[in-house]
Here is the input.
Amino acid sequence: MSSKLPLRDALTPRLLCVESDQRYRDVIQADSPAEVFAVFDETRYQGLVSAKQAALFPGRIFADLVVLRQARPLDEETDLETAIARLQEVKDDFLPVQDKAGGFLGAVSRASLFAALSAAEHRLNEERASLIQRLEVELENRRIATAVFDATSEGIMVTDAQTHIILVNRAFSATTGYALDEVIGKTPHLLASGHHDRDFYTAMWHTIQDTGGWSGEIWNRRKNGETYPEWLHINAIRDDSGKITHYVGVFSDISQHKEVQKRLHDLAYHDALTHLPNRQLFYDRLEQTIAHARREQGGFTLLVLDLDRFKVINDTQGHGFGDRLLTEAARRLQNLVRASDTVARWGGDEFTLILHETTEDWEAAVAARKIVHAFQAPLHVDGQDVHLSASVGITRFPLDGENAEALVSHADAAMYAAKKEGGGRYSFFSPELNRRLTERLRVENALRTSLAAPPGEGGLHLAWQPQVRLADGAIIGVEVLARWRHPELGDIPPARFIPVAEESGLIMELGRWVLEEAARHAMRLCGRIEPGRFRISVNVSPRQMGHETMEDLVSIIERQGLRAECVELEITESALMSEKHSAEDALRKLGAQGVHFAVDDFGTGYSNLAYLKRFAVHRLKIDQAFVRDMVEDEADRQIVTAIVSMGHALGLKVIAEGVETEAQRRLLLELGCDEGQGFLFARPMPFDAFAALLAQPPTPSPHAD
Ligand code: C2E
Ligand code: CA
Ligand code: CA
Here is the structure.
């Protein structure tokens, strides 16, 4: 600070400029006491004469008083320290000061330097004092601000332009759990809950930059890990030049508010008795579900359920009892559906359900049946068992209605139809579908019963259809076909029960049964079954092709004492193609154990040749559709020709199925087809008939059945 003081400010004010030929006595003036005299000869500076020195010789002219070896003047730029050092050095009281051009400026003395320093210091002190005063005022203001800052219930956070936190208030700490010293210097990211993605924050900061502020709901995380919603308002603070200097965030914790809101919502949208969504909320959800299904081009199911006999019970047992019964019914209903499904109380003893993403008709039927069954068990109320049943009406979106009203009223109509038939059942809105599904379900139930029945009592049995060498008619194999004569429903063709078995999953059990039964019977053909010369072909459904079941098949065969080499599995082309790798592995393992594969219905699928090599297929079975018309239809004949030559090129045997006429047999033989199966040779027959046929010596043109 001292070195910055210019020497000009330190010049002694009590300097008198005199001519060199003047005498002290002539110039002395009482009212302007000089300390020092600067002596000039004309305009040239000669030297300094102190007042003390001049006073000693009052009669002398100043020229005589100027000593010969005058001290070199100080440059006006000289700093204070140097000036003082020079004064001490010259052992004089004064030193002249000159300007840059060498002109005389004045003189400095220790006293003048000190005075200047003191003056400077004083000035500085004064400045500091006023600064402190100003600061105090500011601090005071700030204290007031801080008091407000801390008293407010809103959380406040101030950051610098780089979003580093510089100040937070008490409410901030109360809400977030962080004290000021824990957050200072950190960024608000510290509070991020993970509820919002990067895009959310990017958009928020964009808005702040563009508009100067942002407000909205945001989820943050407290120090204890809990997340909470807050209403946040952020302001960017700019200086006069428009540059952002600070951000101020003001927020309020709205979790309690939300809680209250939620409770209000719950009250408004839920049934007070069962706590299920009420009609209003159900409609909302239904509209949402419809919108979603439209977007995704999906479907869903709507059920209307009515408790049968409820009115009677309510009237006889009292309303309190009725209420508890409804509560129990609601609980049971909720336990029957997925958590994501919606169960609502429509009013009275009527409930509505949305089953999401049920696209198959049978899925809807299965769900409805489950509910109807569950309500056949009694409900426990006040220590009593109450028997009532439920009637369910089913509508599917978009099939049975395109909007909420239509879906509900149609489901209602379906429910009344179920009630009219005696209750304790369900009904689809569409009568045609209703009939089909009821029928399907009857077949499924009957099949389940038949599979569980003791051997021979369920009506399931096998038909055996020989496969012959076209050239000489020798029987080289047999296809085993499932047959079902139900005790009440009569003969049911495989085309009807196989698809039902596949859809219901019963195909696993049925497939196992067929293979077991086939292997057991085949053992009775002992001696005739020579590996490589005769095979038993069994159909395998694509649904059976899970890894486990396929491996199971070999153990089933071998448990009956039959060798795996004697068995061929007929698999459709599409099944081979579409199944996952696990099935591929299983097929390869089965192949390694000696099991053969035939591709059934060949020509109707994808006709991709790669899989023929991959799965060690042994035989192609030309679909009967091509055989049927091949004599008349040129195109079919060409397809058969192509399949035969392709099969042979791959080293496979080719068999034609559905051979019914001699003309077909001759043509197939001509085209090079190896084997045939069909009514021309034999119809599917009981095992004993087949065993007898096999026992006969081969004839050139065999006919059977
Ligand atoms: P598929 O595997 O193509 O079986 C051949 C079908 O053609 C059999 O019908 C058979 O009776 C019939 N057929 C045989 N020769 C002739 C003929 O000369 N002319 C005509 N028009 N038809 C003939 P079926 O027994 O009714 O079986 C129908 C389908 O049911 C089978 O077709 C097969 O896909 C399935 N299936 C039958 N049994 C089983 C089984 O045990 N398991 C599995 N997964 N499916 C089976
Ligand atoms: Ca077959
Ligand atoms: Ca076939």
